[in-house]
Amino acid sequence: MRVTNSMMVRNMLDHLQNNMGDLNDLNEQLSSGKLFQMPSDAPIKVSDSMNYKSQINRNDQFQRNLNQAENWLKTTESSLKSATKVIQRARELTIYTANDTMTPEDRETVANEMKQLRDELIDISNAKLGDNYIFSGQKTDQKPFDVNTAGGIGSFVDYKGDISSIERRLNENVQMGVNLNGREVFKDEIEALNKIYNDLSDPTMTGEDIGDNLSGMDDAINKYAELRSEIGGKLQRTGNIADRLEANKVHLRSLKSKNEDADLAKTITELKMEETVYRASLASGSRIMQQSLVDFIR
């Protein structure tokens, strides 16, 4: 094959362009820290990175759901703890007044405290997390209880929420209910405290009549203990899930980093090599480009 000067120049320019392209690719990797800039640079790696990113985003959403669930459960547990103290105090007062030796003035004093305990339990039942009432079911913008002073015994408060469960997806396999509704948790207890208050305010009621309310107080204390145990179990489970989600997040980020992050030490070495090749190409090309027909006529 006959080799001409123009062929040598054209080949030299082609190789020089390739060397410049390789040098540019390495420069971009070094400046960005990434192995690729465009999907066309590495389609398979880009697809893998997009998949890792999607998994990381989903994991982040699970963590946000988990934080919401834990906050809801902790607020619920705190409310139940406060409610238990109210019922325990009401029980103490009930035992104290379950006799006929108290003066009317003493009963009135106890009745006033019982009224405060009743109102305190209503206030606890209307607990909020941010702008949401936690004991209203899914009607989180609706206060659970309204006082109905004309309702009489057994209907002192009206429940305005619903009994629907609020669910949170905590990972691919776990969806947890995080709420308790006020009708099941507080309605009977509020009515019970209101009844004791009315009994204490009624001079015809005997100590034995007041003592009949003790079983209701015991049932309430046992119920709250069971509910707190249930909430505690859920909090324990959310803690375990949180640990797994955090470990999974670290793992996914590591995989994504290995897939797309450049090895800076290796890139610098390759860049120096390509720079040497490029400079050699320029030096070689300068000798070829200098020759022309005039050079041979001389």
From TrEMBL:
It holds the Pfam family Flagellin_C. The keyword Acyltransferase does not apply. Keywords: Bacterial flagellum, Cell projection, Cilium, Flagellum. Residues 5-140 form the Flagellin N-terminal domain. This is Flagellar hook-associated protein 3 FlgL. NCBIfam families: flagell_flgL. It comes from the Bacteria. Belongs to the bacterial flagellin family. Its main location: other. It is found in: Bacterial flagellum. One of its GO terms (biological process) is bacterial-type flagellum-dependent cell motility. Residues 215-296 form the Flagellin C-terminal domain. GO terms for molecular function: structural molecule activity. The keyword Hydrolase does not apply. GO terms for cellular component: bacterial-type flagellum hook.
